[in-house]
Design goal:
18 strands; 550 residues; globular; alpha/beta; binds thiamine diphosphate
Length: 550
């Protein structure tokens, strides 16, 4: 068996059926062996697209994603994907070819120290020069990527190691590291704090999704009726019909969510990390609250905020331990319900032009519960987060930590490959779409019926909004009014589409988008003047949100 065959064997051992990649010199031995397997390789048109598609696959399916590239430029093109997976804690294994080991350090053709480059954006990185280590390293890579707090792992393999004969090796499955059991004294203290609290709030993060604890969370909320807010990554964990769920908190969160957090006396943090986009001015975040922090990653507990009770462990085990019935929270629940009503989103935007929040709400009401939404990055992303109501967290896939423009299309491809039966809708902006637009060729090749909603304000809208608000309306390099004709461009990839410009066209256009048989591009012209509200200005406390009228 060769090193390349060993790679294939490890993929099979881990029941990997689909991988995303792009071939080239040093990784050719693996591509050659791929021909003889039933592993589906999705050829993306850029390695960044491949890495992000693998992330979309992992997020939609709840498994580990795999991407592959050659050395040098192939490997460097993967780096943004690795960083994205790192900041969103997505299990990803990236396999790259490297120049032959005698050439390492010689500036050989397509040699780049990808291990060095990757160190800041992977959970772990390996360089394999000795083929006899390959089986063990790959086993470690899959275990590390998916265990504890998940993340990306790079395995860089020299070409000579891929070509070398290695004895058939029995691959020993590694036992994933077990999450610690909660300490009794912490359970007692946490239950006591919850029982005594007059104004508790749940601050729910992506750890719930990664820890596959959505069911336990929903049971906990049903039993306790504690009001809740979620981060961008946790949208869909709490059903939108829950009476005391206030939506997303933070910079572009719902005002009700931010105000309730500021007023609470106990914050139960569940798989969240006090991200700066969430907390605003940290010193003034939930200023009167004691904190119970539940997380699998010890490094997150107490990182930014002193905690009263640390609870490290598996959320599926922890949450049932904290479930209390008959909490007397009527007064607080009523306050929360009033906040929710006071700050409910309004869609009564005047005029005939298309108002993106209303359109997204109409779309959200029209799609079925299985629909997966992927987004790009910018104003449209925040509007999607505010106004779409995913039925499940694995149905809302957005680059949260890194904010990677160009994410939406490849993520949609990965999601559709993972769940071919479920509808996939991409919500993108005119800036972001162009960043991985080449992946329309992947849609075409794979005949994937991904529905593309392109909100075109002819601007890098989010940056323009900041220039307007914080740089005295000095608009530097945010004008995209020379965009291509998107519908014509899509047609070049066999993707039909149309443009709409007025509000009255929206319902029929949504219908066309969703009921078309294949991929479809709905190009929506919106005003460059519409901004995302509310907004917590940088450095301000969360209750000092700005509410503009666009
Ligand atoms: C790769 C990358 N480059 C730059 C940025 C900075 N950035 C954040 S939002 C944004 C504008 C996005 O424009 P568009 O996709 O048109 O979305 P809009 O904000 O107009 O909805 C930019 C440039 C980024 N997040 N990612």
């Amino acid at each position: 068996m060769t090193g390349a065959e060993q790679v294939i064997s490890a993929l099979k051992q881990h029941k990997i059926t689909t991988i995303f990649g792009y071939p080239g010199g040093t990784i050719m031995p693996v591509y050659d062996r791929l021909l003889d397997t039933d592993i589906e390789h999705i050829l993306c048109r850029h390695e960044q697209g491949a890495a992000i598609a693998a992330i979309g696959y992992a997020r939609a399916a709840g498994t580990t994603g795999v991407c592959m590239a050659t050395s040098g430029p192939g490997a460097t093109n993967l780096i943004t994907g690795l960083a994205d997976a790192m900041l969103d804690s997505i299990p990803l294994v990236a396999i790259t070819g490297q120049v032959a080991s005698p050439l390492i350090g010689t500036d050989a053709f397509q040699e780049v120290d990808v291990l060095g480059l990757s160190l800041g954006c992977t959970k772990h990185s390996f360089l394999v020069t000795d083929p006899s280590e390959l089986a063990d390293v790959l086993e470690q890579a899959f275990t590390i990527a998916s265990s504890g707090r998940p993340g990306p792992v790079l395995v860089d393999i020299t070409k000579d190691a891929l070509l070398a004969e290695v004895p058939q090796q029995e691959i020993m499955s590694m036992e994933p590291v077990k999450a610690p059991e909660p300490e009794h004294k912490h359970l007692v203290s946490a239950r006591q704090l919850i029982a005594e609290s007059q104004r508790p709030m749940l601050y729910i993060g992506g750890g719930v999704v990664l820890g596959q604890a959505t069911g336990e969370l929903r049971d906990f909320i049903d039993a306790t009726q504690i009001p809740s807010v979620t981060t961008l990554k946790a949208l869909g964990t709490v059903p939108y019909c829950s009476p005391y769920y206030l939506g997303m908190l933070g910079m572009h969160g719902n005002q009700a969510a931010n105000h309730a957090i500021q007023q609470c006396d106990l914050l139960v943090v569940i798989g969240a990390r006090f991200d700066d986009r969430v907390t605003g001015k940290l010193a003034e975040f939930a200023p009167n609250a004691k904190v119970i922090h539940l997380d699998i990653d010890a490094a997150e507990i107490g990182k930014f905020r002193e905690v009263s009770v640390p609870m490290r462990g598996d959320l599926r085990q922890l949450l049932p331990h904290l479930t209390l019935n008959n909490l007397q929270l009527n007064e607080w629940q009523q306050q929360v319900a009033e906040l929710k009503q006071q700050y409910a989103w309004r869609y009564d935007h005047p005029g005939e032009r298309i108002y993106a929040p209303l359109l997204l709400r109409q779309l959200s009401d029209r799609v079925c519960d299985k629909t997966i939404i992927t987004t790009d990055v910018g104003q449209h992303q925040m509007w999607a987060a505010q106004h779409m109501q995913p039925a499940h967290p694995q149905n809302f896939i957005s680059s949260s930590g890194l904010g990677t423009m160009g994410y939406g299309l490849p993520a949609a491809i990965g999601a559709k490959e993972a769940r071919p039966e479920d509808p996939v809708v991409l919500i993108t902006g005119d800036g972001s779409f162009m960043m991985n637009v080449q992946e329309m060729a992947t849609l075409k090749r794979r005949k994937l019926p991904v529905k593309i909603l392109l909100l075109d304000n002819q601007r890098l809208g989010m940056v323009k909004q900041w220039q307007e608000l914080f740089f005295e309306e000095r608009y530097s390099e945010t004008d995209l009014s020379d965009n291509p004709d998107f519908v014509t461009m899509a047609r070049a990839f066999d993707i039909p589409g149309r443009t709409i410009t007025t509000k009255s066209e929206v319902p029929a256009a949504i219908e066309d988008l969703l009921t078309s048989s294949g991929s479809y591009l709905l190009h929506v012209r919106i005003s460059e003047q519409d901004n995302v509200w509310p907004l917590v200005p940088p450095g301000a406390a969360n209750h000092k949100m700005l509410e503009g009228n666009s």
